[in-house]
Amino acid sequence: MSFTKRYVSGLNPSSAKGLHLGNYLGAVKQHVEFQDQGEGFFFIANLHALNSIFDRATFDTNTHNTYLDFLALGLDPAKCTFYIESDIPAIPYLQTILNNCVTVGEMKRMHAYKDKLQGDTDPDTINMGLFNYPILMAADILVFNPDSVPVGKDQQQHVEICREMAKTFNNRYGKTFKEPEAYIKKEAAAVLGTDGERKMSKTLGNDITIFADEKVIYKQVMGTITDRNRIHPTDPGDPAKNVLFSYMRFLNFDAAKLADYEAKYRAGTIGDVQIKKDFYEHFLNYFAAQRQKRAELVANPDYVTKVRAEAAAQANAIANQMLERVKLAVGIKSA
Ligand code: TYM
Prior knowledge:
Elements: E1 6-11, H1 21-37, E2 39-44, H2 46-49, H3 56-73, E3 81-84, H4 90-98, H5 104-108, H6 111-117, H7 128-142, E4 148-150, H8 156-173, E5 181-183, H9 214-222, H10 243-250, H11 255-267, H12 272-286, H13 288-298, H14 301-330
Parallel strand pairs: 1-2, 2-3, 4-5
Helix pairs in contact: 3-13, 4-7, 4-14, 7-8, 9-12
């Protein structure tokens, strides 16, 4: 008997800068692959962005622009269902039910909340949207009852608590949900940022944004921190301390040329500036077709509106079925 795997994953459109290299390598690249292998449900998690964006125009623009980014990167509406979270009312409904499947103690152990507490933030001032974030995320996932959730490592804990909520629900009301597993691509689980130290992140400002103006990308690449011990281009360097080499490897930079560069780096016969410039050119070439596609999407708003509406209809049909099962299970509806 053949078995089609179902995948669910999303991205929070909290940044006006759009998708960065870490999002692409850690998540979206896998989404694009999985749409050919199984049933993909991918989405823009804009209800999540409400905990950090309090301006309606920014919220709307970020949601829309991020939707375009994903389409341009290769999510194909003919192969997967690619929707916007706020178009699916069953999600916040399910969240209300799942609120009762997790404790405050468990929620306090979640990264999003703990990260916010670093520094001097008073826990009493953290908004409930941020605190409840993993419950909304569990609703995003469980409403489509998937097998697998392809994400970067930073989301692993959230997928695990989602499994726990599914287990608790199933124990109380009878088997309703699968317990989905995170799929994390090992080598791209946590792509380093241009500071060479921390995970690439839209909030840390150590990102390379895929659809920014060339000038912005140039600045991001040229600002990359490479081997700190190397003062002059003639000093021997350690390729492992230059994050650009790892980006080159991820983006299929010519292997022989890369090996040559690494040898020259060790010997102190190539400068960081040249490596940065070459990587910049390579980055633009690698994403040239996607950047072109995005420009076409911008010029074709009717197409995007149609795709969004069709995806919402498809996603709602499935999410509403699942919600009916849940309502029956808990007693909101009688059989
Ligand atoms: P978000 O928007 O922070 O990131 C989107 C995806 O990109 C991955 N990612 C990375 N992977 C590798 N290296 C990096 N430096 C890097 N930075 C980001 C993230 O792990 C993620 O897979 N809570 C989620 C969005 C979400 C979601 C969901 C995901 C909401 N509901 C349901 C899956 C299922 C988030 O904030 O991701």
